[in-house]
Specification:
The protein has a single domain, classed as Cytochrome c oxidase, subunit III, four-helix bundle (Four Helix Bundle (Hemerythrin (Met), subunit A)). The protein starts with 8 loop residues before the first helix and ends with a helix. 78% of the residues lie in helices and 0% in strands. The chain is mainly alpha-helical and 199 residues long. Helix 3 runs antiparallel to helix 4.
Amino acid sequence: MEEKVKPSPTYKADIKAAYNKASKPLLWVGIISITMMFAGLTSGYVVRADNGNWLIFNLPNAFYLSTAVIITSSITLFFALQMAKKDNKKGTILGLLVTFVLGLVFTYSQFVGYGELMDKHIFFAGKSANASGSFLYVLTFMHLLHLFAGLIVVLITLKNSIKGRYTSQNTLGLELCSIYWHFLDILWVYLFLFLYFIR
């Protein structure tokens, strides 16, 4: 019967170091992929708008609120990271908690915005639908799907922070969370301005 060899502490440390080294580049690859997808969608929007039969309407008021909310959430997450670098556990937890709540508020405001659109008879599909409204639903809902993933990441990061896993010597998980969340913030601002100016 063969004896099982336990991995040495050095081996485990090497694996962890390799994971830490690869995590940020892998995240950036994912972010670039998402960016390319939205670049394709917005390009399709521009091409379709030039073909005529394009409905022009104002963006829902709730989208203005959601823009302010998501920008604020980036500030609170930045605060959380700075607190972690100062070994301020309570500040880190507070920043992450507020970020998560603001993420929920953003999500709620998006659905309020969809309600406003439906009240104006702007639908995603159906006999009354127009390509202009359909593109708006697709662009904003795809962003919302990625934000759902971001909320899960923030929640996991908050849980790890409560367990005391982030210190001035170990902020990688919090940095990864911040990069992704700030990206979602920038992406939404881009989409909002794009939809506001490109009619």
